[in-house]
Design goal:
Radius of gyration: 16 Å
Largest sheet: 3 strands, parallel
Shape: globular
Oligomer: single chain
Number of strands: 3
Structural class: mainly alpha
Helix content: 40-55%
Number of domains: 1
Strand order of the largest sheet: 1-2-3
CATH superfamily: NAD(P)-binding Rossmann-like Domain
Order of helices and strands: HEHEHEH
CATH architecture: 3-Layer(aba) Sandwich
Length: 158
């Protein structure tokens, strides 16, 4: 279990932080953009026990994003975090996830990509330090990224 927790921290906290540090030194100033990814589930008031640590690491990225936005803002570099909800992808458990969503569908990769493209554009120069939920009105603790946690667990076992 300890190895698993270190692995999740390395993937979800250390790697994005070190990549942002390296990128900040070569990004255009002004005009550079850093965009992190988290999860809409960080706002959930209840989560399954196997998702707790995963979501804690995602919450850490949200805080890092706000701190870096302040640190890099003077150079005209924006830093934001995207918090997607369930997206229709091969690894996503689909069962029961559309019933709680008013649009009766999972998100599509293009739903996320269009926001990332906007945040990377000049039009988003005044948006920084934000955690942007893209989840089709899904709020709270309706879903859990069990499949992400299980997949990460399998990768550390090998």
């Amino acid at each position: 279990m300890r190895r698993f927790l270190i692995h999740i921290s390395n993937i979800n906290v250390k790697a994005p932080l070190f990549m942002a540090k390296a990128a900040a030194s070569i990004l255009p100033s002004p005009g550079g953009r850093i965009i992190f990814f988290s999860s809409s589930l960080t706002a959930a008031s209840t989560v399954t026990p196997n998702a707790l640590y995963y979501l804690a690491t995602k919450g850490a990225i949200e805080k890092i994003s706000r701190m870096l936005a302040k640190d890099l803002g003077g150079r005209g570099i924006t830093v934001n975090t995207i918090l997607p909800g369930p997206v229709d992808a091969p690894w996503q458990l689909r069962e029961g996830k559309t019933q709680s969503n008013p649009s009766r569908r999972l998100g599509e990769p293009d739903d996320i990509a269009s926001i990332v493209a906007f945040l990377g554009s000049q039009a988003a120069q005044w948006i920084t330090g934000q955690n942007i939920r893209i989840n089709g009105t899904l709020v709270g603790s309706q879903f859990c990224h069990d499949t992400v946690v299980e997949a990460a667990s399998r990768s550390t076992a090998s």
